[in-house]
Amino acid sequence: MWTLYGLEALYNSSGQQRGGMLRAVRRGAPQSPAGALLLKELARGPCNTNPILSGYIAGMLIHGAGRAIGDEPEGTGGLIDRCRSLLAPLAAAMGDRLFWGSVRPALSLACLFSALFSAVEPAILYCLGYNATQIWWRRRALLVGLGGEQAVRREMRDGRLERASARWGSGGRIMLGVLAGVVVVEGWTRLGPACAAMLPATVLTGCSLAASGRIRPILASAMGLAVAAAASAALAAVAGF
Amino acid sequence: MSWVAALLVIMWGAWVSLDERTWGSWAVHQPIVAGTITGLLLGDLRAGLAAGVVFQALWPGLLPVGGSAVPASGLAAVTAAAFCALGQGGQEMLRPWPGHPLLLPACIAGLAAAWAGEHLEGRIRVRNGRRESEAISAWPGRPERLERAFRGAVLDGAARGVVVVGAGMALAFGSGVSGLSSRIGANPWVAAVGEILPLAVLGLCLGSVGRWFGGGRRGRPILEISAGLLAGLLLRILVLRP
What would the pLDDT profile of A92-102 be if each residue is shown by its tens digit? Predict the structure, then answer.
């Protein structure tokens, strides 16, 4: 499992995670002609999946290398093709939606709330929440993957990942509302009614920037920061700072 | 600030860079964590928290669409936190959200660091492509070449952090940031913006995450956000009093 933490180290545009996946599978695959053949097939083309759920793919390949018929892994060529074209992209889509699209934003909102009220040190909250989640899923993905291709297919069919995304999404939406309520009251209390004009302007800007998929993130962030700075300056003037 | 503290911050930048692109992640590269630890290393936790809050709100969940490189959010927070902490002059907590008079110039420096980190990531990927090709061409006869390629990639990742944070610290010292705070104090606008900026950026965060979580949806998502809003209002009014 620990080798999979280095999956992205050799990331590049042509092989993507190939180097990292080769390292991880080589450590776990049997030292046999079957294992060598599977690794050779894996090295022929790119590989990309969500790093936290990469255990599904790595485990499946290690399992495939171990199930030898003669000197060849059972159905090696087909297994690698199915990994590359179907299962790895599927794990990538589900994993990205869960971790980048639900877990991280939800934890960000929780730690921003914590930063306002110093309930728990926000850095500790984020670290504990994220690492507990990712370690659990990494371990699960590898254990399921080591059960073979059918076990991975069953896992993806049974909706566990979708349910996890939905739960984190619900938690994130509730946290969004809580933070919004708290920010509105704090702003009004500390900076006066003029805050009621500033906050909607920045919220709308945030919405617009998030909706504009064509702008590069760094440029969108710079634009957002400029709007926030202008709004802050206007509010400072009105509030008499 | 001592040389030891400066060295620790640069090494911390290397670790943040590794966590972001090479070995992880363990959430260390998230701005709130990276900024807070930087503030702790430089003896000004509030400065670190202010920078961390702004960048965490600006980038609550970066999505590498199609494997694209994303802004180096962790390095941005480390650079901005170092700027604020070196400048000193942070006020006592007058408002619940952490602010700092130097937060605006610090965030500009942080954005520059994020861009630099993203650009260097692109260069590292090109080098990784060459390394990997050489290792694969010798596969499977020479597996140690893959390990060597991996070590090279790890060194590049660490170097990225050292270069970006080191350049940020050099800029901070070169611009006389410790004297900047007294000049900022004479300009109330920049200081006032620095105190209010976290609240404004929280508004941006609410908008962008709201668009992501609830955009175009009806029914349950809107109910969940509304329930949270009501809970937040009641929580603040009844429980979390100043």
Answer: 999 999 999 99
The H or E element that residue A68 is part of is strand A68-69
- The neighbour count for residue B216, using CB atoms within 10 Å, is 7
Instruction: Establish how many alpha carbons lie within 13 A of residue B138's alpha carbon, considering only the half-sphere containing its beta carbon.
Output: 13
Q: How far is B171 from chain A (nearest CA, A)?
A: 20
Total beta-carbon pairs less than 8 A apart between chain A and chain B: 329
Tokens of A223: 């634009």
A183 interfaces chain B, CB cutoff of 8 Å: yes
pLDDT at A235: 87
Helix (H, G, I), strand (E, B), or coil: what is residue A182? helix
Residue B20, helix vs strand vs coil: helix
Nearest-Cα distance to chain B for A56, in Å, is 17
Give per-residue pLDDT as tens, A113-143. Answer: 998 876 678 999 999 999 999 999 999 999 9
What value of ipTM does the predicted structure carry? 0.90
Interface of A with B in 36-55 (CB under 8 A): 36, 39-40, 43, 48
Nearest CA in chain A to B212: A210
The tokens for B159 are 């170097």
3-state percent breakdown (helix, strand, coil) of chain B, nearest 5: 75, 0, 25
* SS3 of residue A12 by DSSP: strand
pLDDT at A17: 92
* Min Cα separation B212/chain A (Å): 7
